[in-house]
Amino acid sequence: MNRGAEARPLQIIRDALPQLTGAKLRVAEAILNDPDEVERGSITWLAKQADTSPTTITRLSIAWGYTGFPDLRAAIANENGRDVQAGWESDIGSEVTPESAPADVLRILGSLQFKAVRSAIELVDLQAIDSAATAIAKAKRVHIFAEWGDTPPATELYFRLFRIGVPVWIHAGAYEAEVGAGLLGKEDVALVLSRSGESEIARTFLERAKENRAIAQLVTGTPESTLGQLADISMFTGTGLGGSWTEYFAGRSSDGLICGLLWMLVAQKVPDSFEVPAPSAVAKPIRAEAGKKNQRRRQ
């Protein structure tokens, strides 16, 4: 049986290293050091790299279970191709390929986001979100915590709550989050955004907040998670962590929808907050006053 069909060629070569010496060892090392060049290069090129003859390479290829160097080179190319494909699918996902046309990429991403939003609408617990909004509207302090990919929707929610006068802070680091939780009191709110619902820092943040009798809230795609069990109010987005970037990116739509809904419900409970002047309205008199001061100085 052809040994090359049973195992990966580069692993075969690695396994053979302890038994190789001289020119054969140099050939093996040259292949392992740069398999990409080997799959593109000729037997003459490899012989030059290993300071040996093409005949030695042919004999070594046969010893490893291949019909010759062309067969070995094809096996290496096939292995590299599988590795690239596996890496792409692990990171990006299988829906989009390196050959996908831009229009197809757009269609696929749009379809996945639409699916995530539809899932959020179907699975949302309106009573839970309304309860969370009521607590935020009444709280003297609201502290938000998020990490990595959960940060964008958390930051958006922070800015919108800040805009309507909610006393809100946002944290990303462990020490900062712990201090923030320690500042919370009875009926304040500790809100975590975590798609996975698994984070030691977030768990400590919520536990510390609950010790101070604050209300622990969670926006998550995994309600049965550790944080989901810990939170007083858990808001399900309908989209879990996923196994690739494509799936995770789709969930941004459901994350944003639930956070947007939460903010709107808070805003409904504090409508007087919209009397606060918009930034552009505040900036005009400030600039006008600054202009008057500069004019007086010139006089």
From TrEMBL:
Signal peptide: none annotated. It holds the Pfam family HTH_6. One of its GO terms (biological process) is carbohydrate derivative metabolic process. It comes from the Bacteria. GO terms for molecular function: carbohydrate derivative binding; DNA binding; DNA-binding transcription factor activity. CDD domains: SIS_RpiR. Residues 132-275 form the SIS domain. InterPro entries: Homeodomain-like_sf, HTH_RpiR, RpiR-like, RpiR-like_SIS, SIS_dom, SIS_dom_sf, WH-like_DNA-bd_sf. Keywords: DNA-binding, Transcription, Transcription regulation. Residues 7-83 form the HTH rpiR-type domain. PANTHER family: GLUCOKINASE, HTH-TYPE TRANSCRIPTIONAL REGULATOR HEXR-RELATED. This is MurR/RpiR family transcriptional regulator. It comes from Orlajensenia leifsoniae.
